[in-house]
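Write out the 3D structure for:
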Amino acid sequence: MTAIENYIAPTSLEQAVELLAAGEATILAGGTDLMPQSHAGRVKFKPTLMNIRRIPELKGIALDGGWLRIGALATISELMAAELVRRHCPVLAEAGDHFASGQIRNAGTLGGNICNASPAGDTLVPLLVLDAQAELVSKPNGSLRTRTLPLAQFFTGPGRTRREPNELLAAVRIPVPPPGSIARFYKFGTRPALDISAISIGLAGVLRDGRLSQVRVAFGAVAPTPLRGTATEKALEGKRLTPETIAAAALAARDEINPISDVRASAWYRKELVHNMTKRMLENVAAAGN
């Protein structure tokens, strides 16, 4: 483990990004991923450790115009309990119920789960189907700069993102879903919550008169990053959820992923799971719309 030379705990967003502009630091929020990974040798601390838990601008869940803004320090437990999340994005609260243990949910943060960038991250698939954006803040030239990036473009590989070293993830922004919106999340692991997923699937869209539009599908644990299922979306967009449409979409889901075999599941098993569970999710949506 690399020796930590400096420990800093900024109390404002501006102070934090000023420190990041001065040099790279290891960022500590809940620590539920960082500490086990550092002990296992998968993460090496930079000379400066920055604890961001005291920054008020990174906290809170609020409506901002037509957006739901969730601070990066919101814990999984806070997401599950937040009335605004349960009203506008219940699939995100539902995903929290599959997230580790109660103790981890109380400490683990949404921002940490995103920046950890695991292909199997439990909040990432529902965030993708909700068209979430990452709000990144920096201070490159003496003034604060905020840029937003669709979460679908944020991940570049296991543990890697498009966040620059001088940037801090301040919040996640989700457009408030329109009337008639539906969303579903499914995770399969050896245990319901205390296990890394073998696969996960997210589905969202607007259901009117039996037809799905604005379809979003995402998969986790089947590629180096969580990813959108564009072929599956195309198989569903604007169509009635007939048995034929559902069967075609399930086949598209199976065929557009290219998973690996590992200790949690074989590639074949992952493909079959995605096929069968996509079909079951769509049948559930169709039944609810009748």
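The domain at 181-289 is CATH 3.30.390.50 (Enolase-like; domain 1).
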